[in-house]
Amino acid sequence: MLPLFRLARGPLTSLRLLPLRACSHTPMDRPVESSIRAKLSRTLAPTHLEVRNESHLHAVPAGSESHFRVLVVSPSFEGLPLVQCHRLVNEALREELAGSVHALSIQAKTPQQWSSDPSLAKSPPCMGGSKHDPGMRLRSDRE
Amino acid sequence: MNHLFRLSAGLLRSGTAGLYRRRPVPEGHVSLVVARLFSSEPENSELGQLIKKDKVVVFIKGTPAQPMCGFSNAVVQILRMHGVDDYASYNVLEDQDLRQGVKNFSNWPTIPQVYFNGEFVGGCDILLQMHQNGDLVEELKKLGIHSALLDANKDEQKK
């Protein structure tokens, strides 16, 4: 697809064509990611939210929405043990986790925890598990 | 001790063998569980019994000798770093009934899953966080397991 161009602002002494920023994916292209964002926003009222599709890091077809990492910063987590924080996230995404989401990495922090350590963890390297995973093959057979 | 946790967490990401000495996990601890997972009382079900048989029980993809998933491997590596080599490990890739059964039992949607003394601890993220903030050393101590990282820390302090 040829890049689209726009006229550069500036003196009319010369016209310059600058490429438009390449069209980013629309939420329509990423329905699962959009759903994850919407549900976490609605149920946990996060002060900071990051949702990353990490499917490309795993042995799954291009364009998959199967592996995600979420960072949720919310006062909803105050006073809760870590496992309970994660359970809140799991519950919010129950439908997605019963569907196409195969793996979900969670970082759940209170606003205070986030301000003292504002870092996003990285996922461990894939060991090709999805290739050996009959569960994944069954899903792709159904799709 | 914090620098040891941060360093070791970085090694998990790089996938290298790391500073710890590898100890082979006895293959006898890798078991297959045939489905009879549910009874009218979940605590007395086969899974309910399984998670209590050993102090440390993990449900992973693959085996400790050959993990088949990066997250499962992270759990195996963390336990190894702490010198925990006597634990029960169940390969969910070999038994789809076990795989779904443990998710239902724990009410936890993903693998790996870790149990200490019959109590659900969490998955890879939680175990990693416990490892990084020092909680894992304390929890292992409650199980009567002395973390190898405590000895590593003492060696560091002697230098």
Automatic annotation (TrEMBL), chain A:
Bias (Polar residues) ranges: 108-118
SUPFAM superfamilies attached to this UniProt entry: BolA-like
Basic and acidic residues bias: start-end ranges: 130-143
Gene3D superfamilies: BolA-like
Annotated stretches, region: Disordered: 108-143
InterPro entries (alphabetical): BolA (IPR002634), BolA-like_sf (IPR036065), BolA/IbaG_stress_morph_reg (IPR050961)
Family: Belongs to the BolA/IbaG family.
Protein name, per record: BolA-like protein 1
Organism of origin: Huso huso (Beluga)
UniProtKB/TrEMBL annotation, chain B:
Coiled-coil spans in chain: none
Alphabetical list of InterPro entries matching this protein: Glutaredoxin, GRX_PICOT-like, Monothiol_GRX-rel, Thioredoxin-like_sf
Keywords for this protein: 2Fe-2S, Iron, Iron-sulfur, Metal-binding, Redox-active center
Superkingdom of the organism of origin: Eukaryota
Family matches, as SUPFAM superfamilies: Thioredoxin-like
Residue ranges annotated for the Glutaredoxin domain, each copy included: 56-121
Pfam family, one: Glutaredoxin
Listed PANTHER family: GLUTAREDOXIN FAMILY MEMBER, GLUTAREDOXIN-RELATED PROTEIN 5, MITOCHONDRIAL
Protein's recorded name: Glutaredoxin-related protein 5
Organism: Huso huso
Lineage: Eukaryota, Metazoa, Chordata, Craniata, Vertebrata
